[in-house]
Amino acid sequence: MTSESTAFRRRLRLVPALERATHAVGMYVQAQAGPRCTQAEANVLAFLYERGGSPLAEVHASFGHRRSTLTSVIDRLAARNLVVRKRDPEDGRAYLLSLTRSGTTLGRAVTARLEELEARASSRLTKRDVASFAKVAAALAVAARGHQPR
Fold first, then answer.
1. DSSP class of residue 86?
2. Furthest CA-CA distance within the chain
3. Cβ count near 29 (within 10 Å)
4. Beta-carbon neighbour count of residue 58 at 10 Å?
């Protein structure tokens, strides 16, 4: 191991750990939901399943994807008849998202699998550990958003 890679390991502790965990969760989602469901799609399906639908703006705020990325995810889900996108009758510029019957079925399955994964992970953690993780993840998100090029 070079001194450069050792220095890398000492300086970067949060981002690589979060990236490894994110990748592992993505692989878990694909193994559970099948290759037809990406991690981003699974997260949107679970989000909509838990809420019974949502304005597109809330989905965007929840995940922080680029609008074009989220639009691509929604387009793929709509093309597979998992999500319906309709204009908000109260705001003609906004969209409301809801799950179709097959979207609800897949959303329920994905949510159950993610709940199982969280329960397995949480069984090894204290409530304080979970709260600390949430705090670290939120701090990383805020720091990254605050320094994005315009």
1. E
2. 61
3. 23
4. 15
Range of the structural domain that residue 80 is part of: 3-145
| Domains identified in the chain, total number | 1
- Residue 73 contacts residue 44 (beta carbons within 8 Å): yes
> How buried is residue 111: exposed, middle or buried, by Cβ count under 10 Å (0-12/13-18/19+)?
middle
Helices 56-63, 39-51: axis angle to 10 degrees equals 130
Q: Is the pTM for the entire model greater than 0.85? A: no
Q: Is residue 101 part of a domain?
A: yes
For 66-113, what is each residue's pLDDT tens digit? 888 899 999 999 999 999 999 988 887 888 999 999 999 999 999 998
Pairing of strands 83-88, 54-55: unpaired
3-state DSSP assignment of residue 20: helix
Per-residue pLDDT at 3 exceeds 70: no
Cα 73 from Cα 94, distance rounded (Å): 17
Specify the amino acid at residue 74: I
Tokens of 103: 């979207």
